[in-house]
Amino acid sequence: MSSLIINRSSEYTNRARVYNIILDDIKAGTIKNGATEQLTLESGLHTLKFTIDWCSSATITFMIHDGETKHFDISAFKNSKKIMPVLLGLAVLNMFLLIVFKLNILNYVFIALAPVIIYKLSVGRKSYLTLVEKD
After folding, report:
1. Looking at the structure, do residues 59 and 112 belong to the same domain, yes or no?
2. CB-CB contact of 25 with 43 (8 Å)
3. CB pairs under 8 A, 24+ apart, for 77-82?
C-alpha cells in the first residue's frame, strides 16, 4: 500500500470551510484549515483534485508505486494571504476619509475589484484552489 499526505495551509480565506478531497473522481474525505490528512491507496495511476462549493483546484494526475509516499499542498488562490490585510487597510482608510473628509472610497475599490471576483467565481472557478505536489 502507498500513502498520500495532504497539507492544507492555514489561511483567513475559507477558514471555516472544509475542502473535499476528490481521488480518482470519488470523494475520499475532507480537510480542514491548517490540517494534514493521510490517505492510503493502491499503487498505480491516480487523479487528485479538491473542491469547495462550485470551485475547485486543477486536477493532477500522478503515478505512485507500492510503499511510496506522495506529498501535496493545497491552499486558496495564490494571493489570498495578501488580500485580507489589504482589505482591512482599505476599510480603515475608508473610515478615516469618511470621518474627516466625508469621502467614501469603498465604492471605487469594489468597482475596481469586481472583475477579479467575478472571474474567480465563474471562468476561473477551476483554479480557485492551488494544488502543488511537493518533492
Report:
1. no
2. no
3. 77/13, 77/120, 77/127, 77/128, 77/129, 77/130, 78/130, 80/11, 80/12, 80/13, 81/11, 81/12, 81/13
Same domain assignment for residues 66 and 95: no
What is the pLDDT at residue 108? 82
Q: Is residue 100 part of a domain?
A: yes
Whose CA is closest to 56, among 91, 21, 96? Answer: 21
Domain match, 54 and 15 both? yes
Average pLDDT (2-25) is 94
Q: Is the dihedral of CA 69, 75, 77, 81 positive or negative?
A: negative
Residues of the domain holding 66: 2-77+128-134
- Please return the burial class of 110, using the count of CB atoms within 10 Å of its CB with bins 0-12, 13-18 and 19+: exposed
DSSP letter assigned to residue 90: H
- Cell numbers placing 96: 478615516
Cell 500500500, residue?
A: 1
Number of domains in the chain: 2
Whole-number average pLDDT of the chain? 90
